[in-house]
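Dear H.,

Thanks for agreeing to be a second pair of eyes. The structure we're designing against is below in token form, covering all 234 positions.
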């Protein structure tokens, strides 16, 4: 029992410290966060307390209002903290992959399925909306990456819809803070088993590519690869 209490006591300060740190980081980008949270808590508690007086049970309604005020404040704080974090991540390499990792259940994400020498990158997510290719980098350069990846997807899973999104603030692009919402709004056209089958086919492709034998050392000059399955017998 003593060990459990000690572990719980050690965990609580850690959580409080993490919340305080998150609040400080959020306040740097959202100066009104304190006023907003206070307003949400006070209004929620006040509404339930007023209802309690109207129905003749102010104590019970006040307790319920206090709990719901805490819950509403936590929800608003979480959303504004997430928005502030996305704002700080905007434009940084790998930011889209971080968003995809936290998109929620039902999605399988694979970061950096395609990349060029300029560090433009394409990530892949598979869900009930189909396959979503998310590119980040120069909007002109990522077009070729997306086109090549979509062509490959059409060869492997031709019966699965493929969407492409480019993260950015320009015209036709999706802002980082709206990436998750945009993906969740895509129409769901696949069933659970179809999503699993799609992931299995893509995973098999990855295993096949990783297990392909590569020649060790440089290829001798003048040597040509044989046509067909192997060298012809003489």
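And this is the sequence the design step returned. I haven't edited it by hand at all.
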């Amino acid at each position: 029992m003593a060990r459990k209490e000690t572990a719980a006591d050690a965990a609580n300060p850690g959580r409080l410290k993490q919340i305080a740190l998150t609040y400080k980081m959020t306040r740097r980008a959202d100066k009104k966060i304190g006023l907003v949270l206070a307003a949400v808590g006070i209004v929620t508690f006040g509404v339930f307390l007023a209802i309690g007086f109207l129905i003749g049970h102010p104590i019970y309604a006040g307790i319920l209002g206090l709990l719901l005020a805490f819950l509403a404040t936590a929800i608003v704080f979480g959303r504004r903290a997430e928005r502030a974090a996305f704002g700080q991540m905007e434009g940084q390499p790998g930011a889209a992959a971080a968003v995809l990792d936290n998109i929620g259940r039902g999605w399988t994400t694979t970061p950096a399925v395609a990349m060029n020498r300029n560090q433009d990158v394409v990530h892949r997510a598979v869900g009930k909306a189909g396959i979503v290719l998310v590119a980040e980098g120069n909007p002109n350069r990522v077009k070729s990456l997306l086109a090549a990846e979509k062509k490959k997807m059409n060869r492997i899973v031709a019966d699965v819809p493929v969407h492409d999104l480019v993260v950015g603030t320009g015209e036709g692009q999706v802002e980082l803070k709206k990436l998750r919402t945009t993906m969740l709004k895509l129409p769901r056209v696949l069933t659970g088993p179809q999503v699993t089958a799609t992931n299995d086919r893509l995973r098999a492709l990855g295993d096949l590519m990783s297990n392909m034998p590569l020649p060790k050392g440089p290829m001798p000059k003048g040597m040509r690869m044989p046509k067909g399955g192997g060298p012809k017998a003489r």
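Two observations from my side: Residues 58-89 form the longest helix (32 residues). Strands lie at 108-115, 121-127, 130-136, 162-167.

Warmly,
E.
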